[in-house]
Amino acid sequence: MAPLNPIYPMKKILPALFLIFLTLPIHGQEKTLAEKLGYSKTDKLLIIHADDIGLAHSENVATLASMTEGMVNSTSIMMPCAWSTEVGELIQNFPHLDVGVHITLTNEWFNYKWRPVASAEKVPGLISESGFMHFDCATVSQNATPEEVETEMRAQIEAALKIGIKPTHLDSHMGCVFYGRPEYVASYLKLGQEYGIPAMITPEIVESIIKANPSLFTEFDVDNLPIITQIASASPQEYDEKGMEGYYTSLLNNLQPGITALLIHLAFDDAEMQALTLRHPYWNSPWRQADYDFFTSEKAKNLIEENNIKLVTWREIGAL
To answer: In Gene Ontology terms, what is one molecular function of this protein (predicted)?
Structure first.
């Protein structure tokens, strides 16, 4: 049985679950990120982040509804996907929303395919024999050069800007930036710095990639990078054992002090999502509907209030 408040080590979280950060005192750093935001070390802060906006129309409208009518306060866009441009239209009347760029280097669905944003001749290593992006992160790292990955990351950020999105952060779909070559991470941080937005990393990434390859990261103040320290997201086991409502109820009732990134996936369980997520037993259409149902419910709102949980946003963090 999983613990009531499963804050997972990054290596145990499926790669899609990389987002949101907390800065801890590292090598003499005086204040935590929570304190820089004006909170105390004992405050429980939460970012409720919806992955994958832009994936489908169902994903887009459910995510927007959850952010304007529910408790969700962060999302990130998959620019290579067919429905990404719709997001620019949908958010025109909501310029305050936190929308990051979900750096996408893979295409994990069986019957819904996309290509890189950059032209094929510039990023051939990101394209499979079928003509679309690779199915998994391992294949990306085997085939795509660091230069190609940086070119594609930049193209995705620029594409988001062109449709009117002013990104509040960067993160990595399926964690492929982190599960690939260390040069991918250097380019990722470089682009975050260049565009003036935080790029998500974890303590594990700092130790196993950044500090293990110091020559690649000389331009960064490694000891003061913003770092994810608490991540929560439903696992397949918990989905089967507790259901979404049971999992989230336990998590919110047992949330620990600091900033927790709660990673969810929202869509309606309709014909579009059922076709898109075909043969995927998890993170599928019913899973995304369950996430939506909980975080637009009165129960979620009441649990957050009863546990004195304070919601914080990427926009606040980025302003620091």
So the answer is: deacetylase activity
